[in-house]
Amino acid sequence: MTITKHNLYNFYFVLIFLLPVTIGAQELRIFTKADFSLIGNVKKSTVITNYGKEEFYFNKEGRLTKSITRYTDEDYSITYYKYANNEILEKRLENYRDGVFDKNTSIAHIYKIDTTANKKVIEKILTYSKKFLDQYEYEFDAENRLKAIKRINDEEVDETTIEYTEYGAETEQAYYLNGKLLKSIRESYKTNSKAEKLKIVLTKEFIMGKPLKAEEVVTKENGSIVSIDYFTTDAAETKFVFRKKEMYTYKKDNQVVDKITVKTAKKTYDITYLHQFDGENGNWIKQVISPDNTYITRKIQYYPEEIAPVSEETIKN
Fold it and tell me: What are residue 221's phi and psi, to 5 degrees?
């Protein structure tokens, strides 16, 4: 198929318009500059990709307040985030085609938070043309852990329940969609030969109760990834089988990936990363990935350093 401007827009329409409806229930979290591998007092980060540009805006507390995806000069989308008291209140996605705002494909996520008893969050998803799409109700337990997600729309009601179990030092969350196992997340810890404490998170996904895929992520206390194991299912779709392992190494003086060693049943190979940094700020502004020689560039703007006011007593001295 020939890639035209019209096809490109329709492709991103599917990604932007449909994904919030299907996975919006998983996105109550607040995104910060750390989620984009940024440090320091970052105000804006512009990422240049092969399909256009991504712009991310942060407030002084480091929270994401706006993002812009530009496919062409006239085709782009803007997402706004509004917060209050460490809670998200609104997420609005506005789409523009040929420079004109398209209210039919633009979506508003409105959150209502009730903390009179155990916390409850109600998320309503509407188009800008006032068409109702979905409602999600998030219920939390006395320990402020998510215990249920109810999805309501004009056609059906789905409920996801979350069960928490402890196995000694291990903990597990099991997600059930309408009674069938959807996902399980098991967390445990170990100490490596360097006396570093490692966190191990094994996530298994299921479809209609049957195994689908899984991954085990090992991280250090600072959040850097040590390794990821990926699993698929066997031919009978009854159990998980190993697919590949990724082992991460980092540059000595910062937390950027230097190399990923990939091991499969048949071969081992390396993916290497070269970075250019923006001086004393410590953020990378160009990343080259080999052996494909693909690259990503970033332009980063910072808030000016705030100078503490000099007291009158200091001036006198």
Answer: -65, -25
